[in-house]
């Protein structure tokens, strides 16, 4: 069996690679079947091109992903669906490291330096268990439960017996035979309180939306294992399905306090905080900066969420967002996609500081206006846009963005994130001020040349439809004809109407002509706002 097994050793040290390879040869492995990778990137490529029976993964891989991030990547990309043996090799025997790896259920942990006798013993135990698991699965396929029972007679211990049953149900689950796996576990778990079997049963109930049964099993398990990460994670997911959002937050935050390396859970907390409109949960999100780089979450949209949490907490930074982005991602230059996210984040930052003019100017930047692919594909990009539109009271733009977000939420593959995004969208829609009827009435009054009534109607709706090009032009034209008597507050509205066009890289011809002909429009808004704020530089 060992001669035929293909092995991948992932370690950044070539000496340890060769030492491990030599130990494996001494344990009976064919040297031609032993492959090595120096970093996570190479390991992922090799796993994409070849199916390995055994993986030895070092925790510390030097520059690039840690072994934990690699394991998460392989798991997320379904490259471990064939259930290879996974051995974690580490010199760091700390509890957080073990807890982080435990969520991916490796076969065993090996502490450096490796010893031939210890590895031989661990391998023998794993091979024996795998052999039993295979016999039980074959017996079940041929003769059902009776065939599995015959094979289980080979189990040399209660532990081996329980692991074999659990492994059988996992394989049935992978094959899509959920009902068979559920029935087996439902009869097995009450007699044998084996934690992995209990967790798998809860996952199956959850998968089949049987929340009552899932919660019944999990409540009992949680009493005996209150600090188990998978138990806490499942507790949060069930609470979320039952719309018990406070409970879900408590479970996830408890899990993150025990081990903060799981970014899937951390971003679940982010979206749950968005749903509840609470910022207290964002503090630990900043710690994710340490773990996001080189992980499967190392993408602009997830980096952007870290900045959102920072901006919404109004944390003052000494560096610009561009500089922080480069530092966080270890890049030398920003990509086009990066720049789009940076621009919309700068707009959010400006609007949070109360600088609506600057925020609107950022929205007009080419990196945002030409980011069609991001607008059509990125939920996160549109969600940040929506936040800016909401703060600026750009209702029409917000309505359009919410419609796009609703479509994009269906594309989310992570079940918890998908549900959380839908809950967040529901809250945004419910709190949206859509005076569309008043908007249409104001436009009709203008088109019917009832200018006095139209002017007042337009001023009334402007606070909810700021920077709307149609309303802005009508207000400007009425003012230029001296048909728009303004209060002091309403003069601010007219300034915003002018800024709607002056913030553009190239204001429309009609506006440029009007500005050249009418002294009332001679001074650019950019200079007026800079003077009013005491700034020496325009926004």
Could you please describe the fold and organization of this structure?
The protein has 539 residues and is mainly α. The protein contains 28 helices and five strands. It has helices at 14-26, 40-49, 67-76, 95-102, 116-152, 158-174, 178-188, 195-207, 211-224, 229-241, 245-258, 263-276, 288-292, 300-312, 321-329, 336-352, 356-363, 366-369, 372-377, 379-392, 395-409, 415-430, 436-447, 451-461, 469-480, 488-502, 509-517, 525-533, and strands spanning 7-10, 34-37, 54-58, 85-90, 108-111. It is 65% helix and 4% strand.
Give the strand order of the largest sheet, numbering strands 1, 2, ... along the chain: 2-1-3-4-5
Major sheet description: 5 strands, parallel
The percent of residues in helical segments reads 55-70%
Q: How many DSSP E strands?
A: 5
The number of helical segments is: 28
Task: Give a short synopsis of this structure.
The chain is built from 28 helices and five strands. The protein is mainly α.
Question: Which helices and strands, and how do they pair?
Answer:
Elements: E1 7-10, H1 14-26, E2 34-37, H2 40-49, E3 54-58, H3 67-76, E4 85-90, H4 95-102, E5 108-111, H5 116-152, H6 158-174, H7 178-188, H8 195-207, H9 211-224, H10 229-241, H11 245-258, H12 263-276, H13 288-292, H14 300-312, H15 321-329, H16 336-352, H17 356-363, H18 366-369, H19 372-377, H20 379-392, H21 395-409, H22 415-430, H23 436-447, H24 451-461, H25 469-480, H26 488-502, H27 509-517, H28 525-533
Parallel strand pairs: 1-2, 1-3, 3-4, 4-5
Helix pairs in contact: 2-3, 5-6, 6-7, 6-8, 7-8, 8-9, 8-10, 9-10, 10-11, 11-12, 12-22, 14-16, 14-20, 16-17, 16-20, 20-21, 21-22, 23-24, 24-25, 25-26
